[in-house]
TrEMBL record:
GO molecular function: peptide transmembrane transporter activity
The UniProt record lists the keyword Iron: no
Solute-binding protein family domain boundaries: 77-462
A biological-process GO annotation: peptide transport
Name this protein carries in UniProt: ABC transporter substrate-binding protein
Keywords in alphabetical order: Signal
Gene3D superfamilies: Dipeptide-binding Protein, Domain 1, Dipeptide-binding Protein, Domain 3, Periplasmic binding protein-like II
InterPro entries per record: Peptide/Ni-bd (IPR030678), SBP_5 (IPR039424), SBP_5_dom (IPR000914)
Length: 540
């Protein structure tokens, strides 16, 4: 998909359902065809579709692959690589594929999807997108767990199967998916990155494949992934699944500092910066003029607690920290009002969103916060830290947050930078990071469930903080199985109410795409998934 789950940059979802000021595309003279452009990304964690769940990697893969479905202006799924997607009962889904070829000229078949999905679903492969195959029959046999004590941690057991029993290639162009239970919104789910196919040869040597992925999208690799430097792609001449690129090539340049990328943009040495750094938010509109752009996004920025750490295991401690943060002040001073305060656990762009669902816990009230922290027995050592990735432009707002916690709770708070977003994800995933840490989420498909399930469900794909609540899990699952969208939303809202009591994370901000481009390109647009629409960009 165009979206990725975890986002590395600091600027993030507008509250209105209309486009923000500045627009997402240029008007005027028709652009020149051909040529190439460059844009910034963070170093990807992976370039295997079933394991690419962060913003840098998914931006690259959005050019190399075409999803089964895309989304229209109303967030409704529209067919892309799929010819049709149908189900008589919302449980058994039949997917017919359009004719397509891999970048090496071989035909794309149903087996290519089945093989890739089975690899992602097989527990021992530890794919970051493994969670998304959990609705398919046979997933539990591929991902069993052994209880280690009644309330203790669980460990992986030996899988009883290596393939999903509910996944079949009926013929070269037909995939049949049988879910464990009906899921009316499953068509939208299929738009996500993890449901891209991979050629059969990729599974024989994934390490080699990842250095130069072969896809079926509008662009193909031009050489190998040059780690920490760049990824180059070029237009695929035989692309037939959608609009062909208007340029010959794209160079994704890997930056570890957003300000360096922005300075390169000002010097016309970089063509697109997908997030304007917070430090220059006040001057960028004048410096870029009509090349300063904003558009609606789906990003949700928050700070997560390692709930498995005794220091943060009491919800009262978590609520007290949240109540001691003045979101509005940080947005005004640091972000120059380019974002909106978040007091809910899902984005305003999805159906079922409600304002202020976390209630008192998200209300700035230093006196009440101090009292609540005292009732909880305080924090061990009176010290806390907030981790963040140095390549995402977070230092300023994290420092501002720490300053507020020092002032309002009397805590010693420090900002702790990890060089790369991919590295931060790895550390928190393996529970090797000690302390609170910032996270950001971009929807994978337009649904409340896409925020609630991956971020907060037990074993959720991006639940890096160990949160688990059986009632929450049950409500999310009941929502998936609901017969109507209204019934589903009711269940999901009940689940969100549980988050307000437990506070596994602190909602901070909803943002928007705030980006810019050089004088060399035009028609630069970013979508709800925080990605540049690569095929629309033209040379000026």
């Amino acid at each position: 998909m165009r979206g990725s789950k975890m986002v590395g940059c600091a600027i993030v979802v507008a509250l209105a359902a209309t486009a923000c000021g500045g627009g997402g595309s240029d008007e005027g003279d028709k652009g020149k065809s051909g040529g190439g452009f460059s844009m910034n990304i963070a170093e990807p964690k992976r370039l295997v579709p079933q394991s690419t769940t962060e913003s840098g990697g998914s931006q690259v893969l959005s050019g190399l692959f075409t999803p089964l479905v895309d989304f229209d202006s109303k967030n409704e799924p529209v067919l892309a690589a799929a010819e049709s997607i149908e189900s008589p009962d919302n449980k058994v889904w039949t997917i017919k594929l359009k004719d397509a070829t891999w970048h090496d000229g071989k035909p794309v078949t149903a087996k290519d999807y089945v093989g890739a999905w089975n690899w992602g679903a097989y527990g021992p492969n530890a794919a970051d997108g493994n969670y998304f195959f959990g609705t398919i029959q046979g997933y539990d046999e591929m991902n069993p767990v052994d209880p280690d004590g009644e309330e203790g941690p669980k460990k992986a057991a030996e899988p009883k199967a290596k393939e999903l029993s509910g996944l079949k290639a009926i013929d070269d162009k037909t995939i049949e998916v049988t879910l464990k239970a009906p899921f009316a919104g499953y068509k939208s789910v299929l738009g996500y990155t993890v449901f891209y196919p991979m050629p059969e040869a990729a599974l024989a040597d994934l390490k080699a494949y990842e250095e130069a992925p072969i896809g079926q999208g509008p662009f193909q690799m031009d050489g190998k992934w040059n780690h920490d430097k760049f990824v180059k792609v070029k237009a695929y001449k035989d692309y037939k699944l959608g609009d062909k690129p208007k340029v010959d090539s794209v160079e994704f340049r890997i930056f570890q500092d957003q300000n360096t990328a922005y300075n390169d943009l000002l010097a016309n040495n970089l063509d697109i910066v997908d997030q304007i750094p917070t430090e220059v938010m006040g001057t960028a509109p004048n410096e870029l003029g009509d090349r300063f752009k904003t558009s609606l996004a789906s990003t949700f920025q928050f700070v997560a607690f390692p709930t498995y750490d005794k220091k943060y295991s009491d919800p009262r401690v978590r609520k007290a920290i949240s109540m001691a943060i003045d979101r509005d002040e940080i947005i005004k001073v640091v972000f120059q009002d380019s974002q909106s305060s978040a007091r809910s656990f899902v984005s305003p762009v999805v159906g079922g969103y409600r304002e202020d669902t976390c209630g008192e816990a998200c209300k700035f009230d230093p006196a009440a916060a101090k009292k609540l922290l005292a009732e909880a027995g305080g924090i061990d050592g009176n010290k806390i830290n907030i981790g963040h990735n140095a390549d995402g432009g977070h230092e300023q707002w994290v420092n501002a947050t720490c300053d507020q916690l020092k002032k309002n709770l009397g805590l010693e708070c420090v900002s702790q930078a990890v060089p790369k977003f991919a590295e931060l994800l790895t550390q928190v995933e393996n529970k090797k990071f000690s302390g609170m840490f910032r996270m950001g989420w971009i929807m994978d498909y337009p649904s409340m469930e896409n925020y609630l399930g991956p971020l907060y469900s037990t074993g959720g794909s991006s639940n890096y903080y160990g949160y688990s609540n059986k009632d929450f899990d049950r409500l999310v699952d009941e929502g998936r199985q609901a017969k109507t969208e209204a019934e589903a939303i009711k269940k999901w809202q009940e689940a969100e109410d549980i988050l307000a009591k437990d506070m596994p994370v602190i909602p901070l901000r909803f943002g928007k795409n705030v980006f810019g481009h050089s004088t060399n390109v035009k028609n630069v647009e970013m979508n709800l998934f925080n990605q540049v629409e690569l095929t629309k960009v033209e040379k000026s």
